[in-house]
Specification:
The chain is mainly beta. 3% of the residues lie in helices and 47% in strands. The chain has 2 helices and 51 strands.
Length: 503
């Protein structure tokens, strides 16, 4: 009686109920049954080494370990304590009465000669594993702990995934400073996770470079739980990336851009519908995140530090940043053209230039809850909106001055005012007060406020009559004050005033 192999992979991919993918919590205990409801529990299970067990515990990565099911059972209902069970099938059904362990349908790069000893060139072995999985119509490569020397280029293939033993232990060490580490052309449906890609520290090669030549887009790419460092080029370069996810990918000390997503508008699809979640960039020479022509793409909980430009949105459409930040960057965020950029909860810290720069006729930009924190001494501007840009700003916290030459609608400009198209319509107080009261002395009073301008309209009303009441009017104005006079030289009334800027 043969026992079949179960598990050996991420629960998300191993367990497939009829209503979609089924995932379980890390550390959950999974039991197995012969029916979707009630039924008889299977307790005659074995570890891969043949030791008896009755249940399986989910690993710290959310995966089911390899185990052997009951004799002659090729499928079971898995129960993780939730409201329903999910069907799990054996990886490969053995035949006959052999007691040999079934063949794992995952491919380990060690099976193709990879050594991971930090000195042997494993390029050919990894490439052979990729090619074997591709020839089989797709599959998943396991990259065990070790430093795998890559002195060439690994050309990836569609439908081939790779899961490493962890970003701190499964290392692909690129040693050729003029070559990329992982490349692919017109590929799709690829997931790389739990890996470290480490470069030679100089040169021109990028860690991951996926390009499009004839396909509409590079689709279905997932990069998760990866550390990328010390490449001379970009950390991640993807051309026409669409329908993809980059999750918890850390890029540090690369000579190019941390994440460079390029989508020139030469196809119908372009680059779109991609999300970056919990990613970070540290000390990359050219920049942190550069999205060129991307559409309908989001960045959430991302960070960058010590780069000339933290985030650059170049000709993008409908791109959003939520809860992101830039520290020790010359420019925290640049929106260069494009339409519909939305930035919420964005923080720049220790900027030594401009915190947020809108330029090249960027339209429909919304900035909500943007905060400038402790700018460096060399910093010049918090928000810079060049002529031709259109933006709405809510709750901006600025330390340095703003340069607003474009059409900027502001709510809460720091003094309780509302500004539409550059004109203040809700009065405010303080040194730039736009409303208040003043008491006439012998029919005259000077009001100090920097809000007064040559074209300002000043509304005056008598609030509390005093003396011989006359009619108040504006007698003169400068850039810092204006004078109210009354037609009566003995008028001592309290006069209310309000400054408006006509369009």
């Amino acid at each position: 009686m043969a026992r079949q192999l179960f598990g050996a992979g991420l629960a998300d991919y191993v367990v497939r109920p009829s209503d979609g993918l089924w995932a379980v919590a890390i550390g959950a205990v999974v039991t197995f049954w012969d029916a979707a409801v009630d039924g008889t529990r299977y307790t005659d299970l074995q570890t891969i080494d043949g030791e008896a067990m009755t249940e399986v515990k989910v690993s710290e990565y959310g995966g089911l370990p390899r185990f052997l099911g009951p004799p002659d059972v090729t499928g079971m209902w898995a129960d993780a304590g939730g409201s329903s069970r999910a069907w799990i099938e054996a990886h490969r059904v053995a035949t006959g009465t052999s007691t040999a362990k079934p063949v794992l349908d995952w491919l380990s790069i060690k099976d193709f000669g990879a050594q991971g000893d930090g000195s042997t060139d494993d390029t050919a072995a990894v490439q052979a594993a990729v090619d074997a999985a591709s020839a089989a119509g797709g599959g998943t490569l396991y990259i065990p702990a070790g430093r795998h020397i890559i002195n060439g280029v690994i050309t990836w293939a569609s439908g081939v995934n790779a899961v490493g033993a962890g970003a701190r232990s499964a290392i692909l060490q690129s040693t050729n400073q003029n070559l990329d580490c992982i490349t692919g052309t017109d590929i799709r449906d690829v997931a790389l996770q739990g890996l470290q890609l480490s470069g030679p520290g100089r040169g021109f090669g990028s860690a991951v470079r996926f390009t499009r030549v004839s396909a509409p887009a590079t689709t279905g790419i997932t990069l998760r739980d990866m550390l990328i460092q010390s490449f001379g080029g970009d950390g991640v370069f993807c051309h026409q990336l669409a329908g993809s996810v980059l999750h918890r990918v850390r890029v540090r000390t690369c000579g190019g851009v941390g994440f460079h997503l390029q989508a020139p508008q030469d196809t119908v699809l372009g680059g779109a519908s991609t999300s970056l979640v919990g990613c970070s960039v540290e000390g990359c020479v050219t920049g942190g995140y550069w999205l060129d022509g991307m559409a309908y793409t989001s960045l959430a909980g991302c960070a960058v530090q010590q780069s000339p430009v933290g985030y650059r949105l170049d000709g993008c459409t409908g791109v959003s940043l939520t809860g992101c930040g830039a520290e020790q960057c010359t420019t925290g965020l640049t929106v260069y053209g494009g339409t519909g950029a939305t930035v919420a909860g964005f923080t720049t810290k220790a900027s030594d230039g401009t915190s947020v720069w809108l330029t090249n006729s960027a339209k429909g930009v919304v900035l909500a809850g943007v905060a400038e924190v402790a700018p460096a001494a060399a910093a010049t501007t918090c928000l810079r909106a060049d002529a031709g840009t259109i933006a709405t700003v809510l709750g901006l916290t600025a330390v340095k001055t703003n340069s607003l030459l474009g059409t900027v609608n502001r709510i809460d400009a720091g003094d309780g005012s509302t500004v539409l198209a550059g004109k203040t319509i809700v009065p405010s107080g303080g040194g730039a007060a736009r409303m208040g009261t003043a008491v006439l002395v012998a029919g005259t009073v000077t009001v100090n406020t920097t809000a007064i301008a040559t074209g300002s309209v000043v509304q005056l009303t008598t609030q509390i009559p005093g003396g011989t009441v006359g009619t108040p009017y504006v007698n003169s104005r400068t850039g810092t004050s204006f004078v109210i006079k009354s037609t009566s030289g003995t008028d001592t009334s309290t006069v209310g005033w309000r400054i408006l800027d006509p369009s």
